[in-house]
UniProtKB/TrEMBL annotation:
GO terms for biological process: proteolysis. Residues 192-346 form the Peptidase M20 dimerisation domain. Coiled coil: none annotated. This is Acetylornithine deacetylase/Succinyl-diaminopimelate desuccinylase. Keywords: Hydrolase, Metal-binding, Protease. GO terms for molecular function: metal ion binding; peptidase activity. Pfam families: M20_dimer, Peptidase_M20. The keyword Protease applies. Transmembrane segments: none annotated.
Length: 450
């Protein structure tokens, strides 16, 4: 069976495949919407069962996992496919050009919440398997599926689930379709992720908001203390001054730098796509900062009054939300302890509240399975894929590489400018169908490899 015949089969089923995707996207499976999350899990289970996948819904301490498998004693290689069916909230709704849960195609792109992250990419996996079975018959490898409903909440119960079901999830490779492809349009293989640590810091002033005239120069404004604190934690050049923050950062290897230096870089194009045309750095610095270095990011500040009307107050509290992207071998718990020590040395009355974390993860680039997958992806796309040691963002990849001790490869099927987590999230139509083709071909190649 040639790739041209696979293309022809997919072309003949475009309408049906798109209908299945659209039905899935219409479900408002926002992570915190328990009712719709359950409904989405049930629909996903039905879709998987229609493909002959032995599927069950498994409970966690939060949203359920949808687990499935296609197993045969004749196969000696097992692929574990991971994805998530929960989506981000849609606010601000007024910035969407169309209803976020009524999918529509405009200018070759599907617009809907979750189409890129991750329902559309999840569906490419299932439809790629459907395509393979229709064309070739029985699968040449075993496939297990784990689709969670809490990735957008930080996968808070996934590590516990994996710990408790290690035998069930045993595999030779974990394969994830998530994230964004390279801005150049080339297929992109990711061998790891940065971790993340999220926390809040709250400075308290008076017991309640005060009149800024009646108590000005008397009641302290907590915003100023928060600004002072933040300035002790990171300087204007982005260097973090929390003691020990960089202690365990693993520097890039020669192989890492070789992979990063081979990635194409177009400063103007990237600047336009991320909405920051003042971007001013070379390609080596760009990729090193995105994949090999940790971050200290102020995600938001809450204090006082910022409405349209006059309200002259001294706010009672100031709260800042921080997320840190961590790299191998930083440990989120260790970094959080160091942050608390830094803050409490500055002022022991400042509250530091943990919000969530994911460990960083990395699969060695010199593994044979990495070469096999890279070759298969290149054949499917007719173009040599780029290989990146880590994605800039975070996924719960560590549960595979650290708990299961299994190599993990991430292959984004979504376009670079998918606007996931933002209004007008989209997936290019051709990216959707290319993902189906890639999944189908990968199964074939993995089967031949045995």
């Amino acid at each position: 069976m040639t790739l041209e015949q696979v293309d022809t089969f997919i072309d003949n089923h475009r309408k049906k495949y798109m209908e299945l995707l659209f039905d899935f996207l219409k479900i408002k499976s926002i992570s915190t919407d328990t009712e719709n999350i359950r409904h989405c899990a049930d629909v996903l289970k039905s879709n998987m069962e229609s493909l002959g996948i032995d599927t069950r819904i498994m409970e966690t301490g939060g949203n359920p996992v949808v687990y499935g498998e296609l197993m045969s004693d004749n196969n000696d290689f097992t692929l574990l496919i991971y994805g998530h069916y929960d989506v981000q909230a849609v606010e601000p709704v007024e910035l969407w050009a169309s209803d976020p849960f009524t999918p529509e195609i405009r200018d070759g792109r599907i617009y809907a919440r979750g189409v890129g992250d991750n329902k559309g990419q999840l569906m490419t996996q299932l439809l790629g398997i459907k395509t393979y079975m229709e064309l070739y018959g029985s699968l040449p490898i075993n496939i297990k599926f784990i689709f969670e409903g809490e990735e957008e909440l930080g996968s808070v119960h996934l590590s516990e689930f994996v710990e408790d079901h290690q035998s069930l999830l045993e595999a030779d490779l974990v394969y994830t379709a998530d994230g964004s492809s390279h801005n150049s349009g080339s297929p992109l293989i990711l061998l790891g992720v940065r971790g993340v640590l999220s926390f809040e810091m709250t400075v308290k002033g008076a017991d309640f908001d005060n009149h800024s005239g009646n108590t000005g120069n008397v009641v302290p404004n907590p915003v100023w203390k928060m600004i002072e604190l933040l300035n002790t934690m990171q300087d204007k050049d982005g260097n973090v001054h929390v003691s020990g923050f960089y202690d365990n950062v693993r520097g890039p290897s020669q192989t890492d730098m070789r992979l990063l230096s081979s990635l194409p870089y177009d400063e103007k194009d990237i600047g336009e796509k991320i909405g920051y045309t003042d971007l001013n750095m070379d390609g080596e610095a760009y990729y090193r900062r995105l994949t090999m270095e940790p971050t200290f990011n102020i995600a938001g500040i809450r204090s006082g009054y910022t409405g349209d009307h006059a309200k002259t107050i001294i706010p009672a509290t100031a709260t800042v939300n921080i997320d840190m992207r961590l790299v191998v071998d930083q440990n989120p718990a260790d970094i959080f302890d160091k942050v608390k020590r830094h803050v409490h040395a500055f002022d022991p009355d400042i509250e530091v509240a943990y919000r969530g974390a994911m460990h960083p993860s990395r699969t060695p680039s010199d593994l044979e399975i990495v070469r096999v997958v890279t070759d298969a992806v290149g054949e499917a796309y007719g173009k040599t894929p780029l290989v990146q040691p880590s994605m800039p963002g975070s996924l719960p990849d560590y549960v595979w590489t650290k708990i299961l001790e299994t190599p993990s490869i991430i292959m984004p099927y979504a376009n670079f400018d998918q606007h996931n987590h933002s209004p007008n999230e989209n997936l290019k139509v051709e990216h959707f169908f290319n993902g189906i083709k890639c999944t189908c071909h990968l199964i074939k190649v993995l089967g031949e490899r045995r």
